[in-house]
Every structure is written in C-alpha cells, then in structure tokens.
Amino acid sequence: MKIATWNVNSIKVRLGAVCEWIEKERPDALLLQEIKTTTDAFPRFEIESLGYRCAVLGQRAYNGVAILSPHPIEDVMEGLPGEPADDHARYLEASIGGVRVASIYLPNGNPADSEKYPYKLRWMARLRERVETLLADDVTFVLGGDYNVIPEPRDAYDPAAWVDDALFKLDTRRAWRSIVNLGLTDAFRALEPTATHAYTFWDYQAGAWQRDLGIRIDHLLLSPDAADRLIGCQIDKGPRGAPKASDHTPIWCELSDKVPADRFA
Q1: In three state form, how does the secondary structure of the chain look?
Q2: Which CATH number fits the domain that encloses residue 77?
C-alpha cells in the first residue's frame, strides 16, 4: 500500500501536476493539503477520470485538505476534535484498505508573537489527543501532511535562521516529540536515519530551490503496526523542479500487506 502526502498550494493551479503524478505513481492514498478551494469547487471530474475517488474538506481561498484513492474511502471524519469554534479546514480522516489515514495541514503559527502561535500549540495538543484515541482503539494508521514542524536541526538548511520561527521554536519541537513519543514512527527517518539535505519545502524566494535551501516539514507518522509493515519511503523532488510547481514536493511511504518475515529475525 502506497500512501503519499503533498501540499499542492492550490489544486486549481497545480491540477495538471497532480494528475500527472497520480498517473505516474498510482498511490493507494494521496493526501493533499492547502487545496485552497471550497469542497464543491474541487475538480472531482478530472480526478475521478483517473479512477480515483475523492474525500474533500475545502475552504475558500486558503487551507483545505483532501484524500484521493482508487479504493473505497470509508468512515470519513471532517475536522480535528477538541475546539468546536475552530472552522479551519485542516484535518480529514478516513479508512482505506484497512488503514486509517489522515490528511493534516497543521497551522504555521507565524508570527510567533501573535495569537497564531498559541493556536498552533493548541492544535498540536488536540492532535496528540486524537493519536491517543487511535492508539487506544488499536487502529492501524498513517497520519500524513504538512505539519509545519522542523523536527531537528538537520531538517533545515540553516537551523540558526529558524530558531525563533514557529516551525522550529523549542515549544513546537517539544509538542512534536510529545506526539511521536506516544509510539509513532517518522517513516522517512526510520529508513533514512542519516540522510541530510532531505527537504520537502523550498521557498519561492531567493533561489531557494536552485540553491537547495530547504526544510523538511511534510511528514508521514505511522502507528506501531503500520511501522512494522513499512518497506519504503521517499521524498520525490521531481515535481518541485517542474514549471509552476508547488513550494512543497510529495513524500510517500509503502506498507507491505503483512509484517515482513525477516523483520524480527
């Protein structure tokens, strides 16, 4: 089972790129963020013409998440529990092929001295509570998306430049660790523990892409049983180098149908 996540930074602008990538990679689940369109305006016809179903939680002009799959998308849950007044379209969860997946667009939090940062930390606390529930229910899950979190210094081209940024502030990384330490696995780091220059985002400014001045903020977090089935994970930099590219690039992981026989040998 191949599960991918991609912040497309406007599905309407990036529709051609998304369709091309789907045709090439044929993921079993594609988690999209920042679709920047309402649910009813999502380009279902073009996606469905590729043999994919769509679950969408949209929002006009910004935010918005979606889950695409060639398989049935079941038991869809819209929104992250815990703050009823929060109307941002940032969380969509569903079951595909026996695996619970979520498309996550975690708040950026900048400026860090504004109300946006406490909102980010509250959102992360709510996500931690949701993870606790999923673990307690013994659910196999993959939570993918744009987390807007730089987990470690090696995940940024210049860590010192990010110290006071909401993506890398100490409280952000503490909140990240509090989620991962519940027993989750960062799919990329599990298979690429020493990789450097492994980025998923490059700003449009100052030639960041051309100079490889990136950060790793798009992640796939796996439940323990999903982690036991993990056989591959890759950052696909190809789409970032294409014309009119999103500032993010896809990252995918692959799960085997069962735990490999030699996993505990």
Answers
A1: CEEEEEECCCHHHHHHHHHHHHHHHCCCEEEEECCCCCHHHCCHHHHHCCCCEEEEECCCCCCCEEEEECCCCEEEEECCCCCCCCCCCCEEEEEECCEEEEEEECCCCCCCCCCHHHHHHHHHHHHHHHHHHHHHCCCCEEEEEECCCCCCHHHECCHHHHCCCCCCCHHHHHHHHHHHCCCCEEHHHHHCCCCCCCCCEECCCCCCCCCCCEECCEEEEECHHHHHCEEEEEECCHHHHCCCCCCECCEEEEECCCCCCCCCC
A2: 3.60.10.10
